[in-house]
Amino acid sequence: MRQQEAETASWNLDQIVTELRASRELTHNIRHQGQIRELPSRKALLGIVEGLCAALFPTHYGRADLNEANIDYFVGHTLNQTLPLLQDQVRKGLLFASDTDDSDERSLAQRASRITSDFASRLPIIRGLLYTDLQAAYQGDPAATSTSEILLCYPGMTAVIYYRIAHALHELGSTLVARLTSDIAHSSTGIDIHPAADIGSHFFIDHGTGVVIGETTVIGQRVRLYQAVTLGAKRFTEGENGVLVKGEPRHPIVEDDVVIYAGATILGRITIGRGSVIGGNVWLTQSVPAGSHVMQAQMRTSTTIQPKSLSERIGQWSI
Amino acid sequence: MRQQEAETASWNLDQIVTELRASRELTHNIRHQGQIRELPSRKALLGIVEGLCAALFPTHYGRADLNEANIDYFVGHTLNQTLPLLQDQVRKGLLFASDTDDSDERSLAQRASRITSDFASRLPIIRGLLYTDLQAAYQGDPAATSTSEILLCYPGMTAVIYYRIAHALHELGSTLVARLTSDIAHSSTGIDIHPAADIGSHFFIDHGTGVVIGETTVIGQRVRLYQAVTLGAKRFTEGENGVLVKGEPRHPIVEDDVVIYAGATILGRITIGRGSVIGGNVWLTQSVPAGSHVMQAQMRTSTTIQPKSLSERIGQWSI
Amino acid sequence: MRQQEAETASWNLDQIVTELRASRELTHNIRHQGQIRELPSRKALLGIVEGLCAALFPTHYGRADLNEANIDYFVGHTLNQTLPLLQDQVRKGLLFASDTDDSDERSLAQRASRITSDFASRLPIIRGLLYTDLQAAYQGDPAATSTSEILLCYPGMTAVIYYRIAHALHELGSTLVARLTSDIAHSSTGIDIHPAADIGSHFFIDHGTGVVIGETTVIGQRVRLYQAVTLGAKRFTEGENGVLVKGEPRHPIVEDDVVIYAGATILGRITIGRGSVIGGNVWLTQSVPAGSHVMQAQMRTSTTIQPKSLSERIGQWSI
Amino acid sequence: MRQQEAETASWNLDQIVTELRASRELTHNIRHQGQIRELPSRKALLGIVEGLCAALFPTHYGRADLNEANIDYFVGHTLNQTLPLLQDQVRKGLLFASDTDDSDERSLAQRASRITSDFASRLPIIRGLLYTDLQAAYQGDPAATSTSEILLCYPGMTAVIYYRIAHALHELGSTLVARLTSDIAHSSTGIDIHPAADIGSHFFIDHGTGVVIGETTVIGQRVRLYQAVTLGAKRFTEGENGVLVKGEPRHPIVEDDVVIYAGATILGRITIGRGSVIGGNVWLTQSVPAGSHVMQAQMRTSTTIQPKSLSERIGQWSI
Amino acid sequence: MRQQEAETASWNLDQIVTELRASRELTHNIRHQGQIRELPSRKALLGIVEGLCAALFPTHYGRADLNEANIDYFVGHTLNQTLPLLQDQVRKGLLFASDTDDSDERSLAQRASRITSDFASRLPIIRGLLYTDLQAAYQGDPAATSTSEILLCYPGMTAVIYYRIAHALHELGSTLVARLTSDIAHSSTGIDIHPAADIGSHFFIDHGTGVVIGETTVIGQRVRLYQAVTLGAKRFTEGENGVLVKGEPRHPIVEDDVVIYAGATILGRITIGRGSVIGGNVWLTQSVPAGSHVMQAQMRTSTTIQPKSLSERIGQWSI
Amino acid sequence: MRQQEAETASWNLDQIVTELRASRELTHNIRHQGQIRELPSRKALLGIVEGLCAALFPTHYGRADLNEANIDYFVGHTLNQTLPLLQDQVRKGLLFASDTDDSDERSLAQRASRITSDFASRLPIIRGLLYTDLQAAYQGDPAATSTSEILLCYPGMTAVIYYRIAHALHELGSTLVARLTSDIAHSSTGIDIHPAADIGSHFFIDHGTGVVIGETTVIGQRVRLYQAVTLGAKRFTEGENGVLVKGEPRHPIVEDDVVIYAGATILGRITIGRGSVIGGNVWLTQSVPAGSHVMQAQMRTSTTIQPKSLSERIGQWSI
């Protein structure tokens, strides 16, 4: 053990610390104007969103033994634990994003309080929307046996819950916290929905891995997506000074009752007309009218004889 | 602080609790027939599957210091901790899925006991199958240096372990728990295998993110898949009353010794004949005979000059 | 309860333990030459990489309240906790990979000490590279409002941090630990970068789910990738004895300033010339000269009338 | 490491397990009639009592940030978490203490439910009594600056809270759980109060280490004790068959307004009359009338010269 | 289970919550002037004192593998984690003890900052004093084999460390936090030292259970106590208005080089002269000159015959 | 917050770290010969003893649901987890106590292995002894309703379990670990038994707070003690050089069937003859023959009138 400890000290700790300090301060300084700003915490936010889920669907995400006599105590207590934590994260997010000096901290704190309070009052509306998403999933997937199963097992449902929470926070002005909320869902589901996207009721994503929905996307009611669908931008607009114009609409508008199958890539501020069906793996950069069916071009297929050796067969396009 | 606490109370807790209660009870009630049913727990199930993995591969997923003298104590103890927990989850899943009243709880508990007992007795067989999967991975990926490395580092192996456990539970009638098990693997690997799919020995998925294998898929022996492969349904059958027919075969049959490369999409109850090779990104909705090689159509390629400005280059199809 | 316990014992524990022992020892033995070798731990490594991240970016991944007076204590202490744990994992990885007998353990421990020490001394360089990646992300995504937001919310940044750590470990000879580090990032981001790949500065992956970068890939400076891009192998070389040749260059070379859009699949030891742009969903197996623009072939588009029934519309290619 | 593992196996695990089995089953069997009975859990009970304390004094033992708007949610939720756990411990305690066979489990569960329900309805009364104890401590100790300080820092207060909870459980018939509750307080405060003791309002123990209050002790109102006071039994009554008579009154009766100073030992069914003061270290086995002052006999004191050597001085009566 | 849940609801939650509210607000209100004040946290303070111990004796209470190259990083980091937490507790303690309104919060925060800063600067002095206590323990107990053993195993040493920390906090004005610190030590060691007591260097308590040292006690250098020693008050002084005078000297002065054996009770503002030895179980309420030896009066001893029955023998003074 | 952070930095961290370093290295160095030695860990040892208790009494301290089919797996697994951890602590203890240089580490490790192995083989014997202690408690306390209640609720039983484990470790040469084990029990029970004391079967301590049993004490069979009993030394022997002679018998011999009541202090190498009864609070420094009854001298009792004022009454000997 002493031998090992001697080896443990084989690195030059002082030198590494000094070089990392130089990297931080001189060559590769990423600190925000030299000030310390406490960032929102991914871990804290995960706990907060779990708390909100428990308040929204107490018997599914909270405790299984709730009944008429105690469920309101549970919901009230859970909100009471969660909302102050959310307010603190919102405050940090505002502080981080601001360019102001100390004198404004108090007003940022008040703004965080207002945002959280407004968000809290929207929770019943959010629950209502999620209820429609749940209905859409139940009707859209013949394999689903109950809404509870969907709440429990469907990554698409998880992603939509996180999106609706993040979207409300984004609208109220807590953009960094909203973004972080989205990324937590992205990490656990593989579904990446920008919190600024505008998505109507009865929304359902099946399987979902690889879905990307961009910032200015607009999605109507009763839309259904499958895995690996991209709703992206095609081209950024450059301003007169050569700087990219931010926030300009650059992602698709998907109207009501559209279905988009797995792997479809839809780019640019185009419109997918009401009731259209976009086939799997389709690449689409032009608007299509209502009621369209879009399918991929046919594949070239060649039947070949059995390969002669194992290695030849293994060798094709593997990675 | 007092100031802050005053702000903390800026939301109207009573009102939000009341509105959420109204949402739960009146407008958006998703409770199952008004009864409380304890759902299976994702978190509990994660622990259970880790326990089963430790019992199946004790030196890899259990404890590294096991030896001849103590390994059976470890395996026995681990099963002894894990199986009652599994039985409890199975019971909750059965209870949830049933439409019966209180008098049947005892028979459901007995059924959960039988399912768990049968599942337990299959563990050696499951281990045998996983051993063939391990061999397939070792032979199929030239980068693999040992079976231990595969058990430790390959998401495809993780997904197959979870699938084989979930499949056994599904066959024995614990469908909700099986489904939840699948989704746990989906979340950590990006690989989505329905527990009802029927997959032969020596199965290997490389990289794996985005793979989807549907409910009625049949896969033979020695099949190998790469990332983003979809084995999906093309069309649902509608019954006379307009209701979708459930459980009907609608996903592909993949015969022995087939290799399917990244991004291929194979849809419908078609058969991929023995020994075929399906190329990357291929879109396939028709059966192919044994020994087929299927490749994607050629791309249009255009060589262009350097873009004039950075923004122009950045702007293409980004999201 | 006693009733329940009686049911709990419904499986035959002794028999299952015995059969699993038989499976381990006789029929499906995967133990390494009968010896016990302590494997590196995924969980331990996760904590180690989090520690390294905290040392590299202390105010983002460490503690928010660090200031000039205490930040070096934090960095030094964090390294001091983390590096011995890393050394232990490196030692286990070397021990596992070796074929040697007991007498070599001491030399492996010394080698682990050297590797860890060399790795530690590279940390400032790694930080410098990650700084360029951060700049690339900030410039490459108009939606990014600050480098802190990128460190906090971008899975592509997470994947690159893990890659640069894993790559250094791989170069120093700790290949198994490097591989495990990669897979941890893969699991949380859906981005799969082999630690042996060689990637230049200013590298940025946007969204990222489904990206696969193979072992012998070479990527220049200022390269940007989107989700679901594959940089893979097309064919393995077979040696005279029919055994696959390992480590031979078989993945693409991507030169400086290349952008590759979502879903593109690029296979084989081909070269994507400097400044090229590869469009989304492109399938490419041939080299292209500098400044190329490669786009996918046009889709067949057909406008159709509204489907008659819901089931017909739902039924298309769903899974 | 392998060397070390070899050493790890130096004990004969099988033999020790076998001998311990023999000890359990043959020579030193302490199992209750061969049946398995789940015992109440010390750890669970600790959490339960902390929950009860939080419900009784929410701003002191619960959360500091409670206010008019949320405190009832906190109290209701806390009770709702705690009472079912208590009921489960009560049930286990009843089951353990019973001699009945399986058919009675249901009635024991119902009895546990009634006990817990009755206990819950007494909580406001318990709080009222504890309020008087708090007042007594505040008035009895001039060093106390507030009741909050007493709740926070006084082991005597902790012991009395645990006692009043344990006493209520004892009276309702949950004797084993009551006993375990007492011992938890004993372990953390050094104060040992039997849950069957009958103690009036305004009770205060200062410092408290070493206090023992026996099973049939009766204590009036406004009594104050100091550390190391024993209220014990002097002699047990033997029945005709030579068996000790249980539950017979054998501990002191301490009337209202008595003060007993540190180290006093009071034994037997004697009565300390109203308003008496018992001095420190007094040994008392006879009743004293109201208003008595009892003091210890004088010490023999001898003044001596300085000891000649250190060891001589150290050597006196040390241990 | 449903049956059980029905039973779970057998208490009337609403009624209990309402009655507890009435108890809090009307009949037994202990809230401080109706304001909410966040109290110092016992649990937080336990972590803080452990952090201070680790900073003071890093290789004993911190990490065993510290060496010249990294120990300062450990100490600096540990202080950096611990001191802000202490400051927060000190602030809460000041806020709680104050009668001021909101406008003073800022000045209390500044005062907490000053107290913590002053306390931090005293840490080297505290360590120096504890070093003398360690020497005293090593010399005073022939069974001690090393100072490390004393730091690790001696409750008396633990109590003295906590005392010296609490005493410094008390002197600086953080009385509530000091008191809470004392009680933490009391709970784990059975030794109760008031933080206001004034104790010189080279202080040693052996065994220690039951020791009580009162608020105005003054103890010189090189004093040694054994278990169950009380240094208490005999009488409080009553002011003209009948209110007890606080803080007046009422506990003993113990001069240098005194030894007090187990169970001795010394009461009142008396002086135990330099170098005196007080025997076990002595009761002392008068000053003794330097060099005194005080012993307990002789016991009456009577040899009796064997008791006739077991119960008779058991029955003597048992409890 | 920034304001607060500025205040947080109000201490001079560098200076404190420097002064603590000076204190460690120059003025108050307690490091063992400048070498780093990893000390046994109190926390680790607590877990180890809990593991041993679970192996000894699996249904009481292990898991409640054990049955014939699985109990041996539990015991074997628990020992298998616990014994290597114990061996590691034993090794650290030996290393710490040794004066040897690096070359002896291997032999110390082998000695630790032997000690642990011998200890393991004694576990059945230890269980046998504890069984007699359990019987003694059951018979000695009429309040005890079952042996399970004693295992669960009696601090005296806890102390004896820890003592018998510590004593075995002490005898085998692991003195520091034995000492630490004793102190863990002391902290939770207030009972301080030196691991070197020699205690026969059927030993019972009731209540127990404040009991101290010294290093060379010898206790026969069927002995019963009550709280606050001291079996201590009266005088140390000084060697020719003035150094205290260690290990010399200096504590009492208590023969079979002796009962010692609360608060009795028995000092020096005296013998309490077989079957004697020592009364409460007795001070005894001379041997007594078999069958003796020793009681305290009578108290002086004076009846007084009621005190005139509350403060007068409160003021007597309070602290």
TrEMBL record, chains A, B, C, D, E, F:
GO terms for biological process: amino acid biosynthetic process. GO terms for molecular function: serine O-acetyltransferase activity. The keyword Acyltransferase applies. NCBIfam families: EPS_EpsC (NF041874). Belongs to the transferase hexapeptide repeat family. InterPro entries: Hexapep, LbH_SAT, Ser_AcTrfase_N_sf, Serine_acetyltransferase, Trimer_LpxA-like_sf. Its EC number is 2.3.1.30. It catalyses: L-serine + acetyl-CoA = O-acetyl-L-serine + CoA. Keywords: Acyltransferase, Amino-acid biosynthesis, Transferase. It holds the Pfam family Hexapep. This is serine O-acetyltransferase. The lineage of its organism: Bacteria, Pseudomonadati, Nitrospirota, Nitrospiria, Nitrospirales.
